[in-house]
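Incident log, support desk, overnight shift.

02:14 A customer reports that sequence design results differ from what the structure should imply. Their input is reproduced verbatim below. On-call engineer (initials T.W.) acknowledged and began investigating.
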């Protein structure tokens, strides 16, 4: 089996400077989503028909996919005819899809292929019954329920507009390439759009079967921003339902966006307005409270995250993050770590039982076990002269007083104490040291009264 993807169209209805297939659909492009589904069918070849923004699309195809250029976009029949050029006929059927239908399930395509083969039909069509079918080609059947043709929206009579069964734009052709190619050549463009419609291949002299998609969201074709929004919602509902069935609680599912690649274990609770993207993994019994944004991160079990952003980071068991923490790429937290409010961590390792409870910046640092970092502590990692980011190494058991600055590169040995307000510029390699850099405090008694007297 081979698959041909029609993707040369200009997508004018999408109103974008970027090909619609390159737009994001919950963490992957529309193109990647349809490609993943097609590869699951294990085809021998996936062949693209490209035109508009050919270079941009070709750049993200892998060596496993091939493509041909459709120089003028004259319609889907012309696109397929272009796609069939130089395509070797191995005697097997082949699958044709539009690039803008990314929600179709692999199992549905397998059913379509099987039905076409079992019925020895020449063409298998995927269809669905829609409440609001406008915009789609309608399936016209005769009194014996046999498919007679597909009529495009703009060419429909008022009576045909009532037909609710629509064409998904996904076809399995079970006929020799040469025969299909000859039929495509005979299609005319005498219609309202003056395009060569692939749908005109359907003719009563061919045996045509249809596989009706029960979940009509699967056939959603993305032609406009409104369609994209519908597709995001549909994929999101599908993803969240699947997680709910596995034991995840969503307090307000309609306000969350979760990518289908995310894995969340049972008994974790997700609050309102959370976004969880990429291949993030969240273990069981976690509580992800409202407005958290988690991308490509791994979170173990029993961890709480409140109103925080976590990007490309790893968090251990029993951690507490936020409210309002920002874990940037490369943050690695062991078990029982506390990251409190307004704390930013970047490219740093924090060992178990350490706490950074308030208002700190920790960057390019390695922090030992049982460390306590006082409010307002900063690791000054950026050398503005060289432009380098330098490392801070803090040993086990170190306690850092509030409002301290550690000017990197710097190392602090185990169990040292740093007094509040200290600016540490030299490494301390002897453990159990007290480090202070502030001036001794002086008190001038009655200074205020005397000053006032002086001023009269
Ligand atoms: C198409 C179908 C319609 C179906 C709908 C399902 C036709 C004539 N109509 O309509 O019956 O209900 O999909 O979503 O086929 N393309 C090319 N070259 C061209 C023109 C288009 O490669 O010259 C590609 C586009 O990039 C796109 C696909 O073909 O991926 C379909 O084109 P599109 O304009 O989206 O067709 P629809 O109006 O959605
Ligand atoms: Mg379309």
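02:41 Re-run completed on a clean worker. Output:
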């Amino acid at each position: 089996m081979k698959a041909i993807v029609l993707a040369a169209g200009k997508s004018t209805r999408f109103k974008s400077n970027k090909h619609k297939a390159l737009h994001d659909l919950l963490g992957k492009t529309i193109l990647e989503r349809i490609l993943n589904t097609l590869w699951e069918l294990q085809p021998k070849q996936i062949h693209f028909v490209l035109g508009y923004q050919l270079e941009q699309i070709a750049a993200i195809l892998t060596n496993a996919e091939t493509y041909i250029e459709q120089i003028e976009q004259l319609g889907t029949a012309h696109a397929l005819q272009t796609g069939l050029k130089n395509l070797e006929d191995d005697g097997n059927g082949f699958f044709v899809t539009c690039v803008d239908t990314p929600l179709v399930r692999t199992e549905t395509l397998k059913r379509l292929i099987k039905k076409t083969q079992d019925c020895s039909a020449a063409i298998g069509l995927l269809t669905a019954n829609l409440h609001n079918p406008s915009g789609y080609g309608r399936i016209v059947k005769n009194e014996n329920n046999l498919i007679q043709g597909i009529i495009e929206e703009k060419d429909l009579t008022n009576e045909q507009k009532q037909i609710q069964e629509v064409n998904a734009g996904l076809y399995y052709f079970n006929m020799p390439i040469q025969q299909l190619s000859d039929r495509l050549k005979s299609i005319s463009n005498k219609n309202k759009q003056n395009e060569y419609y692939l749908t005109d291949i359907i003719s009563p002299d061919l045996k045509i079967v249809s596989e009706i998609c029960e979940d009509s969201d699967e056939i959603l074709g993305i032609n406009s921003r409104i369609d994209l929004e519908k597709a995001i919602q549909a994929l999101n509902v599908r993803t969240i339902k699947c997680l709910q069935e596995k034991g995840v609680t969503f307090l307000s599912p309609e306000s969350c966006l979760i990518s289908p690649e995310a894995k969340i274990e049972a008994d974790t609770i997700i609050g309102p307005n959370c976004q969880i993207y990429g291949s993030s993994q969240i273990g069981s019994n976690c509580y992800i409270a409202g407005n958290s944004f988690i991308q490509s991160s791994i979170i173990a079990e029993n961890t709480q995250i409140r109103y925080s952003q976590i990007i490309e980071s790893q968090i251990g068991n029993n951690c507490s993050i936020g409210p309002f923490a920002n874990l940037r790429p490369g943050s690695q937290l062991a078990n029982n770590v506390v990251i409190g409010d307004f704390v930013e961590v970047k490219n740093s390792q924090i060992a178990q039982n350490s706490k950074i409870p308030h208002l700190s910046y920790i960057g390019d640092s390695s922090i030992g076990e049982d460390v306590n970092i006082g409010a307002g502590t900063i690791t000054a990692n950026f050398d503005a002269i060289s432009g380098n980011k330098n490392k801070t190494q803090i040993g086990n058991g170190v306690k850092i007083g509030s409002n301290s600055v550690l000017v990197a590169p710097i190392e602090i040995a185990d169990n040292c104490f740093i007094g509040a307000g200290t600016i540490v510029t030299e490494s301390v390699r002897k453990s159990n040291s007290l480090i202070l850099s502030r001036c001794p405090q002086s008190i001038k008694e009655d200074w205020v009264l005397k000053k006032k007297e002086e001023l009269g």
